């Protein structure tokens, strides 16, 4: 065991917290860099450096004390990561791959170059160019506009269906995609180590709440044909290899109404669609990320129980110190695992935690999840 090797993580949010908890059983030295020790990972990391992961000097100084540097968020200073790599420090995912993934335009071009199926798209320098293209007849409605950088959790995405929606166009460089007729949104979390070993977690399906335009819950295993499971798995393996990534890569997919599987986007870190693995797989995605970036043997990704994962989002209309409702009641239910991230302030739709619900069958897990969803609430005390 490389107990001596120090692992540094840029970011100390909930993903950092869950990485630190996964390192716990091995007593593995895991360190975090983020702005405040009050952040979710603060109490769990073996060492916590206060500073911004967007700052060149802060990332360089932190990384120089580590043997391996990884991330729990993409929006980090990658110039510093390139420098650390030059100095002989292992950086996973590689800064080269990270630069491509951080820019949704470059990411799309990468798929085209590598013949990875994705929706048709065009790049535009700003919203004026998009409007001009519509006027000139080279672009037609409906479409989806995505900011090339700085998008996160749907915030950099605008759905433009009618002329009236043009006011919603996002400023700055963007990519415009055709509106895909989506049958289901799927995800595969893949992992790869330096030896080139690859392991993939079972396919996850994301159930959408049309009204709120939010993922309502995630279900594993996905309810799709075996051929879809196989194709999605093969595609995720191709994508992680093409990017030459060590660590995790979550591959978000669209299954279209005509049965095609397209890559929507990827995230080179632990991902929401892998949270359920903590309780439902032999190895969790967090354990797997640590194994992969340290070039250790990858763990079994076998699913031991059907699972549903619900995000615990702040209730609409209240901001303030977080207060929880119904959690004791939910703790009393068999197979219900509550994860609270310890964020002091609750805001509307802020991710405050998640709940994994195991069931004998997918249907039983969904039924129990609906009870939990109606009981467990978090809001901001005013
Ligand atoms: P983010 O990086 O913010 O998560 P995504 O690219 O995943 O952004 O888009 C957010 C959501 O918008 C997707 O989960 C999907 O529901 C919808 N969406 C994105 N692209 C398309 C598309 N080309 N066609 C139809 N729906 C889309």
Jot down its keywords.
382 residues; alpha+beta; Rossmann fold; 4 domains; five-stranded parallel beta sheet; 11 helices; globular; binds adenosine-5'-diphosphate
Descriptive notes:
The protein is about 30% helix and about 30% strand. Strands 10, 11, 12, 13, 14, 15, 16, 18 and 20 form a nine-stranded antiparallel sheet that branches. It folds into four domains: about 5-90, Rossmann fold; about 120-180, ATP-grasp fold, A domain (Dna Ligase, domain 1, 2-Layer Sandwich); about 180-305, 2-Layer Sandwich (D-amino Acid Aminotransferase, Chain A, domain 1); about 305-380, ATP-grasp fold, B domain (D-amino Acid Aminotransferase, Chain A, domain 1, 2-Layer Sandwich), CATH 3.30.470.20. It has about 375 residues and is α+β, with helices and mostly antiparallel strands. It has eleven helices and 21 strands. Helix 1 (about 15-25) crosses helix 9, helix 3 (about 80-85) packs antiparallel against helix 4 and helix 4 crosses helix 5. Bound molecules: adenosine-5'-diphosphate. Adenosine-5'-diphosphate binds near residues 146, 185 and 252. Adenosine-5'-diphosphate binds next to strand 7, strand 10 and strand 15.
């Amino acid at each position: 065991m490389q107990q001596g090797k120090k692992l540094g993580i840029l970011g100390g949010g909930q993903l950092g917290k869950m990485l630190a908890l996964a390192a716990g059983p091995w007593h593995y030295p895991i360190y975090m860099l983020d702005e405040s020790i009050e952040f979710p990972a603060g109490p769990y990391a073996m060492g916590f450096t206060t500073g911004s992961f967007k700052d060149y000097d802060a990332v360089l100084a932190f990384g120089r004390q580590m043997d391996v540097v990884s991330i729990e968020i993409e929006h980090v200073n990658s110039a510093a990561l390139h420098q650390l790599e030059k100095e002989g420090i292992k950086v996973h995912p590689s800064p080269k791959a990270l630069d491509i993934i951080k820019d949704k335009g470059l990411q799309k071009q990468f798929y085209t170059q590598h013949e990875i199926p994705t929706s048709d798209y065009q790049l535009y320098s700003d919203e004026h160019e998009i409007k001009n293209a519509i006027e000139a007849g080279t672009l037609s409605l409906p479409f989806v506009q995505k900011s090339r950088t700085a998008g996160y959790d749907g915030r950099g995405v605008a759905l433009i269906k009618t002329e009236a929606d043009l006011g919603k166009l996002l400023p700055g460089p963007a990519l415009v995609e055709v509106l895909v007729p989506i049958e289901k949104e799927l995800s595969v979390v893949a992992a790869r180590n330096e030896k080139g070993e690859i392991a993939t977690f079972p396919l996850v399906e994301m159930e959408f709440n049309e009204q709120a335009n939010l993922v309502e819950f995630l279900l594993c295993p996905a309810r799709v044909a075996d051929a879809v499971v196989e194709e999605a798995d093969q595609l995720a393996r191709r994508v992680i290899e093409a990017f030459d990534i060590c660590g995790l890569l979550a591959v978000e997919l669209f299954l279209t109404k005509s049965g095609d599987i397209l890559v929507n986007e990827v995230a080179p870190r632990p991902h929401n669609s892998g949270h359920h693995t903590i309780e439902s797989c032999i190895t969790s995605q967090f354990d797997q990320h640590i194994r992969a970036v340290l070039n250790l043997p990858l763990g079994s990704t076998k699913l031991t129980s059907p699972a549903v994962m619900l995000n615990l989002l702040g209730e609409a209309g209240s901001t303030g110190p977080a207060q929880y409702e119904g959690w004791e009641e939910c703790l009393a239910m068999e197979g219900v695992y509550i994860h609270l991230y310890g964020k002091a302030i609750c805001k509307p739709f802020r991710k405050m935690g998640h709940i994994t619900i195991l069931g004998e069958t997918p249907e039983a897990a969904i039924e129990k999840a609906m009870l939990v969803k109606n009981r467990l609430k978090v809001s901001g005390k005013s």
